[in-house]
Structure formats: C-alpha cells, structure tokens
Amino acid sequence: DIQMTQSPSSLSASVGDRVTIPCRASQSISTYVNWYQQKPGKAPKLLIYAASNLQSGVPSRFSGSGSGTDFTLTISSLQPEDFTTYYCQQSYSTPLTFGGGTKLEIK
Amino acid sequence: QAQLVESGGGVVQPGRSLRLSCAASRFIFSNYGMHWVRQAPGKGLEWVALILNDGSNKDYADSVKDRFTISRDNSKNTLFLQMNSLRAEDTAVYYCVRDSHASNWRGNWFDPWGQGTLVTVSS
User: Fold this and answer.
1) Would you call A91 and B59 a contact, using CB atoms and an 8 Å cutoff?
2) What residues of A are in contact with residue B105 (Cβ under 8 Å)?
3) Residue B111 at interface with chain A, using a CB cutoff of 8 Å
4) Is the model's pLDDT at B102 over the cut of 90?
5) Each residue of A67-106: pLDDT tens digit?
6) A24 at the B interface (CB within 8 A)?
7) In the predicted structure, residue B104 carries a pLDDT above the cut 90
8) Contact A35, A87 (CB under 8 A)
9) Best mutation site among A96, A97, A98, A103 for testing chain B: the one with the most B CBs within 10 Å?
C-alpha cells in the first residue's frame, strides 16, 4: 500500500501569511495527488486535482505542486475561512489512501 | 450542481448488518465511477470501496474486504454499501463520493461528496 505522510499534523499561521502544507508518498506516484479541505462537521471539498490543477470555483490563492514523492499545497494569503484541515490523497493505486491531515491553526 | 444524499446509517450491534444508500441527482449517474469513504470520529479519511460506472469492476480496502459489498442501480441513480459482520472499528461517518471519470480510477479525484451518514456499531 502507498502511505501518504502529512507532517506536521498541525501548523500555526496568521491571516495574510503564505503557508505551505507538505505531503510525501512512500513511493513515486507521478502527479496522481489530490488535495481536499474539510471544515468541522462538513464533508471534504476538492481543492486541487492531479497535483497542480485548481478545481473550478476554488479561490486562486490555493495552488498545488510536486511530482514523484513530494507534494505541496500552498495558500498564498491566508483568509480566516482557511483555518481548517487539509488532506492529500493518492490515486496511483488501490487501496486509494489519504494523508493523516494537516490542521491549520490561527497563531 | 451534482448532488449525493446518503441514508441508512444508525446504531447497530456488533456482528449485525446494515445497508447504506446514496441517491444521486443532477448528473448522469451511469457516466461515473463511485466510491465510499469513511471517517471515524475525530480521525482522518479512509477509502472503503469503489465501483466503476457500469458495475463491472469493484475494489475494497482490506479492512472491509469479504464483509462489505458495493453495488449500484443505474436505473435508479443509486449507490449501495451492504455492510455485514459489523465491528466496533467500523463506526464512522460514511461518505458517498463521485469519481471524476467513468471506467477507470487511476489518476482520478473525488468530487462531489455527500453529506455523510453516521454508522455506530455498539452493543
């Protein structure tokens, strides 16, 4: 199985900051990584697909990069509604797996 | 806007069965693969099962293989998850999720997600 590691599990930042959230795969997975945002009590929402493609309707302050084993979600200027949890997910092979999540907290 | 609405969750005793349903609307259901993803209370996301658009191919997480069965009725725009021999560790919110494509899952993504239905396995 491919392990997706998100470390750290939590990050502190301030409104207006630029923040990067890393995700590492246990083996090379090309660009088969997606990113989701989940707010408390809600279903996850797709932000980025295939490593770097912005889902329609998602603000342009979100971006994704990486290939192989190392991937990054970047938020260019944090807004108050961005302080929540983010998950990466690989679609290279089954079982499809998620990272453990990174919770973005207000500093 | 595509919509997915899960139902069938509840409290069930260990060893018993439960069947979840997911009603799809506002898109052509038979054109997409579908998945179930779960989230235990306070935990992360775990993929459970997938089924391709025509039901020809299915796959499962090892944790549910031989106990859970995914199926679909394209004539009724509905996805199912039959859960047998339930265990305490199956307690979670179960999400119905649409794949981005029809007949393959590799390189795809999940969108949209239903609101989820809570399954609690407890005596």
Assistant:
1) no
2) 91, 94, 96
3) yes
4) no
5) 999 999 999 999 999 999 999 999 999 999 999 999 999 9
6) no
7) no
8) yes
9) A96
Would you state the pLDDT for residue A88?
A: 98
- The answer for residues whose C-beta is within 8 angstroms of residue B72's C-beta and 6 or more apart is B29, B34, B51, B55, B78, B79, B80
Contact B41, B121 (CB under 8 A): no
Please report, as a single letter, which amino acid is at residue A102. T
For B61-78, the pLDDT digits (tens) are 999 999 999 999 999 999
Taking CB atoms and an 8 Å cutoff, what residues of chain A touch B106?
Answer: 32, 91-93
The B residues from 35 to 74 touching A (CB cutoff 8 Å) are: 35, 44-47, 50, 59, 61-62
Please give the Cα distance from B76 to B24 (Å, whole number).
9
Torsion on CA atoms B46, A19, A60, A48, rounded to nearest 10: -20
Question: Taking chain A, what is the end-to-end CA distance rounded to the nearest angstrom?
Answer: 35
3-state secondary structure chain A: CCCEECCCCEEEECCCCCEEEEEEECCCCCCCEEEEEECCCCCCEEEEECCCEECCCCCCCEEEEEECCEEEEEECCCCHHHCCEEEEEECCCCCCEECCCEEEEEC
| Interatomic CA distance for residues A69 and A48, integer angstroms | 17
**Could B44 and A97 be called an inter-chain contact, meaning their C-beta atoms sit closer than 8 Å?**
no
Comparing CA positions, the residue from A48, A8, A47, A5 lying closest to residue A25 is: A5
